[in-house]
Prior knowledge:
Number of strands: 12
Order of helices and strands: HEEHHHHEEEHHHEHEEHEEHEE
Oligomer: single chain
Helix content: 40-55%
Strand order of the largest sheet: 2-1-5-4-3
Strand content: 15-25%
Bound molecules: adenosine-5'-diphosphate
Amino acid sequence: MVASMHLYELIADNTTDLVCLHDTSNTIRYATPSAKTILGYHAKDIVGKRLTDYLSEDFITEMDFETLQRFFDNPGARIRYQVRHADSRLRWLETTFTSISKAHIKEVIILSSTRDITESVHLTDDLMEALSNEQEISNFKSNLYSVASHEFKTPLAVIQANIEILKVKSGEKLLKLSLTSMEEEIDKLNSMIADMLQLKKLATNETPFLPADLDMVQLLEEVIRHDVAKAFPDIEVKLNFDIKGKPFILIGDYSLIRYVFGNLLSNACKYSNKNSSVVVNLSEFDNHLTVQVVDEGIGIPKKDQPTIFTSFFRASNAVNIAGTGVGLSIVKEFVKKHEGEITFISEEEKGSTFTVTLPTK
Ligand code: ADP
């Protein structure tokens, strides 16, 4: 008898789980020394308390305390919960309750056994995150394939058609026309491939960020000259800024900022009717540069506006105009990298105004 008592004591003193005996009101009457590891308190200090006294504040708010209490008062249940350890860190615990009713013990008592499962909860969280990333990557890939197969096909078909014509017909004028048309389609293909690569780099965190002093007037003029004037000769693009004021200097990454305004300006022209105009307003106020790109184009339908920055999303009125739906999502990320903001207002068949605000410091 003495030997077996000694053995029980040995087990109780050395168990890594926290084993407690509770009275009918669920108050702890006995706790093993492992209370120090599991909750951070000496066993004697948790006697007279309830396990619910150690719940973390966030967990109580999230789960509703009364429901939690019911679980704890229901012997036989297994419950997972979060506590604040005495070292102030949050830990996840799992407790199983067993009712003990023995002839020689007058009242029903409850035995609880508690284990720290923080690591396995974190492992599960990590796994879930990895799985959802995996899901995102798989969605991303299937979107990419479908865009590639639809959008890349059109320019290739135009190039193919031009080659076929040139095989059977000749003439300087025809050759010139065909070459121009093929060049335009190759430009489109190049810009789509560049978008896909930017998106892939963003998804894999490989976008370089090399800030330098950028003269915004110069940069916007470059974008207008190189990115839009050639591709949209029928659209007049005007840049407005205070000529007499000080230079508009932004500390930013040249390639990213160039991409932002290249995309916004190309979109403004692409989604406009021939012979309309696009206006770019540049201003500075309170250590912030604001660039507004205003067009009189097809606009964005109200129902499509909330998802316009989602990659691969295209508005319902844009389906007949070539595009991949990735530019704006990249623009948004690049603006965010500069701690800036992008907003827009748009009305169908009236036009759109995209506004980018970037801190100059
Ligand atoms: P893309 O133009 O290649 O489709 P973007 O990501 O640049 O991709 O734009 C996403 C969508 O937003 C476009 O497909 C179009 O529906 C809409 N959009 C963007 N800019 C404009 C604009 N200035 N006017 C009208 N619609 C626009």
